[in-house]
Structures are given as C-alpha cells and as structure tokens.
Amino acid sequence: MANNADEAPELAALGGSLVINMGSITPEATNNYVRAAQAYNASGQPVLFDPVGAGATGLRRETVKKLMADCYFEVIKGNESELSVLWGEVNTQQKGVDSGISTSSDLDKAALTMKLAARERNIVVLTGKTDFLSDGIRTYGVKNGSGYLGRITGSGCTLGTTIAACLAAHREDKLLATLSGILMYEIAAEQAAVRDD
Question: What is the pLDDT of residues 129-141, one digit of tens each?
Fold first, then answer.
C-alpha cells in the first residue's frame, strides 16, 4: 500500500511482489508507478499490472503506453476491454472500469490472452465469466467463482493482490503461481456465496 516510490527499493529487497493498479492516475502517481516497477524489475521481484479502465479516456490510454514502454510486468491482469487496449485495438472504448458486454467467443478471448502474453513475454490474465490465463504457450480457462464477484467493486483488484502474493511465494513457474491465485480466490468466492451469514 506504499504510494511513495522512494520506498520501492527497500520494499523490493524484502522479497515480495508489487501490484501496479491504475485505478487513480495523476502525473505524480504515474511517475511513482514507473519508479516503483523499475525498482522491483532491478531487484528481480515480480510486478503485476492491472490497467484499470485502460480504454476509458485518452489519458488512461497514454498512461498505459508509458507504463508498458518503461516497465516489465510478470503478470498483466485485466478484463477484455482493458486487454484489447493493451493489444492495440483502437476502437475499444470503455465506460469506466467495467468491461461491458462482450461479443467475443471464449476462443477469441483465449487467443487475445495468448497473443498478448507471447508479445509481452509474460503471463496475461483476462478476467470474466470464464477467466483465461496464458504464458504465450500454455493457455487455460478457469470457470470457478461466483456471480457476486462481478457486483463487488474492487473484486478484480483483490484478485490481483492474491495473484501477486502467489507470485512472491512460487517463482519457479509464474503461470502455475497465477493459476493458484485465481483458483484460491474464486473457490473462496464460491464457498462464501453459499454461506448463510
């Protein structure tokens, strides 16, 4: 939860992960995102990027370009609209942070996830009713979770922190760590959804 990039080198030395969540963007925040990610990159620690609302405004699209050019992300996690912007689809217009109604098939979503992961040489997670994740070679679909997750503001952000924790704990296979984080989070959501309290 550190917002000051001056702390990033010391925090990176502790061996955890960094989550760059683009929920709030200002010139100062963007500078902090870049400096923090670069500190974690330099120390070999994992960085997860959540390009929240990447296609909602021109400022967000430009911020995404800067972050993608200046930093390396072990994992990029976003909804279909956000990842379409990262892929370079210029006709994508988001309404806030929501993905909107998809007209893509699961095969199309899996292909977007795989080709973005291959291009960026990392793990990409596309969230939705079915989540897709890929390292550019291996691609998986996950159909766990609860419909409640889509109605909770910040549920995607929480998923990102869960994945980042798994990345810090299991560095040997980033795709497996990412899959573990998704399954842990979504199975917990399934169990919570059926509780009486």
Answer: 999 999 999 999 9
